[in-house]
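Narrative summary of target 7.
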Amino acid sequence: MAFLDNSGDIILDAVLTDAGRARLAAGDGSFKITKFAFADDEIDYSKYDKNNINGTAYYAIDILSTPVFEAFTNNTSTMKSKLVSIAKNNLLYLPVVLFNETDGEPLNQVSTQAQNSFSVLVDETTDDVFEALSSDNRQGVFFAVKNTNKFVQLDQGLDTTEISKNQSLDPSLVETHYIIEVDNRLGVLASPSNIAQPFSFLDDDNVATYNVANVADTQGFFAPLTAQTVGSPIDGPRGGAFRFKLKPSLELQTSNFLFTKLGSSGNTWNGASGTYSYIDSIVKVTGATTGYSINVPVRYVKKD
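Modeled conformation, tokenized:
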């Protein structure tokens, strides 16, 4: 959906996504719009100029003149920055989600990126090569068969020193539900204990959506963050930590087709001998409360 400026008249351009059209075409009454969202992907708020000599009416003129996307149907390519409504009007800061890449708490369990991504090995042969490397060269690696205690950890809270981390984060800003989007052809979301999770929805682009809530969380996805938690990148009041792993898809484990179609080859790791095929991808994690999202870079690796 998009708003288009047509010489003073506001035009609402709305189209259905592929998934929406499929449900409408079913003709069984299942197509019902019950919720909708707005986004501001096109807007660069740094263009707000409070020093404009023409006065306050012109402070946002550059923002208001920004071209707006026309509506298009690919749901994976639009609405990356959704708007949220928050009742309180006295907030000076909004929460963010940051990678925790320190060996703080729990000690030696938080995985860090290496070569700007996390690596998911896809078979036991590749596991064997990386298992023989030093611990430094195994940083950021998730094994296909051999389970380790490492996981990705994302910390949520106010990233500011203006408010003490000893203060509690407003409960209305604490993320208790995350939406994770994974290319289902490549990987599967797993708990910190390496248990694969069922997805909630699979769209026409093979993107699987997982909904993970803190209600009755028995698999360790959520963990508390306090002022005493060592190694958190959040400088101000803290909400909580979200932890997860990734497992390779059966397709990557048993076939070279996607590596040939989508991947590249080369020596993908310092200290690893031989050549490797790999596919670079992104896992998107979005907080359901504040709408803040973070992209987790992932590289799926297979020894040739």
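The CA atoms of residues 44 and 291 lie 18 Å apart.
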